[in-house]
Structure formats: structure tokens, C-alpha cells
Amino acid sequence: MEHPENSSEYAGLVVNNGVEQPSNINPYLKRKRFARRQLTANDYVEGILKGDTSILGQAVTLVESTHPAHQQVAQEVIERCLPHSGNSVRIGISGVPGAGKSTSIDEFGLHVLKEYGGKLAVLAIDPSSERTKGSILGDKTRMEKLSVHPDSFIRPSPSAGSLGGVARKTRETIILCEAAGYDKIFVETVGVGQSETACHSMVDFFLLIQLAGTGDELQGIKRGIMEMADGIVINKCDGNNVDKCQLAATQFRNALHLFPMPESGWTPQVLTYSGFYGYGIKEVWDMIFQYIDFVKASGYFEHRRNEQSKYWMYESINEQLRNSFFQNPTISDMLLAEEKSVLDGQKTSFVAAKQLLDAYFALLH
Ligand code: GDP
How far apart are the first and last CA of the chain? Predict the structure, then answer.
């Protein structure tokens, strides 16, 4: 069949006795008929379950949209994909900018696909993308080899909303990717604070990438972040950096000894590697899959996923309550005045908060 765009009718010309004459139909009206059809929830679900990456990409865009109509379709798609999700290993990968996350993920991804097969989705949580309008983790070309691999799907961080909102969208995207047959999920995050907690709450293994520095590597690393790690890896263990990396690894091992045994029963390991030269990559992944086998056998794998589902239920309630409060027009009118009276010392913070909440609850009746 002739492609519509090649047909003379499409171009606004009607062929009459071999002579082209201008059509009396506005060609733009014709053009509209060929515009991309709006997909229904059914189309999205069918496409995702078939592993169609173009539809998966569009579904993720829908999940990320703040438009209420898009959200409604997105929620239906997620719900219908849910029974087909869960069959994956989810790995969180964190490290400060410059730690070598993109270089490493490129190598990690290729290694995992080569050694274990299957399909890999790389997602991100980058709260800075909202503040700065430029995502640190947003550029697909950061992973040059993986981005052209047929079995990988790379998606930058959603950028709209609070950290909670960004993280929720990443979690929902995990569900869609798993339903599309991605059985390995990497969730990348910048190692600078709360985004780690969000990432930790949606992965089975949390890997912290560190660099060897001046000898006091433990300085500046929040205890909480170290406590979350199931494995710590020191990158750039190459050239004349090898001794420093090994020293750093010893320091991390010693520090980890002081922490209580994690609930998983697994002692976090510390390894050195080089993402750039590919040294030690196999050992890192042997360690990660040893952990997965260990927690699957002990039942902790299931337990952690259940705890995460519970956590996200409460997170979702918190987020929706917060939005309902702050987006209420009456409340937002009152907020500035109440804030001013607190700053002027006319009211305490608690009284102002109570009055605002009372006003909000009264509006609900
Ligand atoms: P990200 O900001 O954490 O994603 O870090 P990048 O992957 O962009 O790496 C930051 C810089 O460190 C780049 O210049 C990389 O070439 C370099 N780099 C990454 N991994 C290694 C490594 O294993 N060895 C060395 N020597 N340099 C590396």
C-alpha cells in the first residue's frame, strides 16, 4: 500500500485525468488524519507486555506527566502491569558526581548482559533536576556503549516535583519496565543525601561507589548512607591510584565493623575496581549476585520488597495529603499571612500551623 505521505491526495493535489489540480480540501485537515493516534490504556499495556520500547517510553512519559488526565491513564496502565512485574533484580547505584557512575554503569551493564543475559533498564533519581532544571543524571549519552545495546533501556530522571514525587515516578517506571521484560533494573542516584533513602527504598541491593582520596575517606560520608550500603566499591583503582584505593578499602572495612549487623544478615563487602579499565567488574557482580542468592534463600529478599511496598503506600498517602493541603487555593491564600505573623512574633509556629490545619479540615466538611 502506498504511504499516505507519498500520495498526491495527501499533498493536497487531486489527480484528475492525469492532470494535477489543487484540491479544495485544506491539506492540513488531511494531515491531521495521519497525526499520531492517542494511545489508550489498552494500547499501552499491550505494547509494554510485548516489550515494545517505543510504547514503553511513551508510557513512562505518561507516568511523569502531571496532567490529571494523563495521570489517570498512567495509573490504570501501572495497575494492569503490576501482576507482570516484580520478576527482576533491582540494584541501586549511588556515588557523588565524578565518582564514575556513568563510566561504571556502562561497564556494569555490558558485563551483566553478557554474563547473565536478559534485559537491563537504567533509571535514575536526581532531585537536583528540579532545582537546577538541569539533571546531573539526565544525559543518555553518558552511557555510550549501553545506550546502543539492543537489550538496554535508559531513561533519565523524571524532573517534575519534589524528591518524593520524582522517586515515586521512578518506582512506577520500574513496574512498567519489569512488565516489559526487563529483569535487571539499575537505579542511579547522586550520592548527596535524601535521594539515597528514596533509592534504597526501591532496590534489592544498594551499591555505594566511593573514591580514594587523601586518607580520610570516611570524612563527609554520612553514616546513614554507609549503613544503607549492601556493598561499597572503590572506583578508579588503576595506575598509581591502586595503593590509595586499597588503603581506602581497608578503612571502609574497619568502619563497617563498628556498625551493627544489618537486618539482612549479610555483611557488606568492600571491593576495589576500575570502571574505566574494566578491572574488578566481575568480582563486583559476583558479590552482588551472591547477595541476591543469599537473601532469596533466607527469605529476606521477599521481606524487604514487602517492607518497601508498605513504605510506598505511606509515602503516597503523605504526598497526596501534602498536595491536597498546599494546592488548596484558600490555604495558599492564608499561608503567607500566617507565615508573616510567625515571623513578626505574633503567633508561635504551632498555633499558626494549627489554625491552617483547622481551616483546611473545615473546608473538607
Ligand atoms: P559520574 O559523574 O559519577 O557519572 O562520573 P563519570 O563516569 O562521568 O566519571 C567522572 C570522571 O572520572 C571521568 O573523567 C571519567 O573518565 C573518570 N573515570 C571514571 N571511572 C574511572 C576509572 O575507573 N579510572 C579512572 N582513572 N578514571 C575514571
Answer: 61
Range of the domain at 185: 87-298
Pocket probe for ligand 1: among 101, 103, 104, 141, the residue whose CB has the most ligand atoms within 8 Å is: 103
Give yes or no for residue 238 CB within 6 A of ligand 1: yes
Total domain count, the chain: 4
Query: Cα separation of 210 and 188, whole Å?
Result: 14
Check whether residue 137 and residue 46 sit in a common domain: no
> 11: exposed, middle or buried (C-beta count within 10 Å: 0-12, 13-18, 19+)?
middle
Question: What pTM was computed for the model?
Answer: 0.82
Of 89, 251, 96, 271, the residue nearest 188 (C-alpha):
96
What are the pLDDT digits (tens) for 174-227?
999 999 999 999 999 876 667 778 888 899 999 999 998 744 555 556 677 888
User: How many whole angstroms separate alpha carbon 189 and alpha carbon 342?
Assistant: 37
Question: Do residues 217 and 283 share a domain?
Answer: yes
> Is the CB of 103 inside a 6 Å radius of any atom of ligand 1?
yes
